[in-house]
Amino acid sequence: MIKMSVQFSNKITPLLKKQQQQIKKLPDQAYKVFVKNTPVRSGNARRNTKLKGKKQIEANYPYAQRLDQGYSKQSPEGMVQPTEDFIIAQFNKIMTGK
After folding, report:
1. Where along the chain do its domains lie?
2. Residue 58: which residues within 8 A CB-CB, separation 6 or more?
């Protein structure tokens, strides 16, 4: 017979609290990266990019997908990939403390 017990402490350490606070800031930071990577011609694309509910970036204009596919020379990588790369890098930095 094998018995296994797993218990989690409900105590939040100062390090965990700091990590939680930093992770909570990620959506706002990611939104800024997304907008920064959105090409500018008339400003319509940036103006119509919003952060919805602190969790979802919404690019609400007809040519958003085309821009994200690298149509503009201003942003050949689009907006999603650089934003995802930023999120992953920031998360790793937060979790490792580096």
Report:
1. 25-96
2. 49, 50, 51, 52
pTM for this prediction: 0.80
Query: Residue written as tokens 């958003």?
Result: 64
Alpha carbon separation from 92 to 16, 20, 23, 49, 82 (Å, rounded): 14, 13, 10, 26, 15
Check whether 37 has a pLDDT greater than 80: yes
15 vs 1: CA distance, rounded Å: 38
Which pLDDT belongs to residue 42?
Answer: 85
Amino acid at site 89: A
The residues, ordered by sequence, that sit 6+ positions from 54 with a Cβ below 8 Å of its Cβ are 27, 28
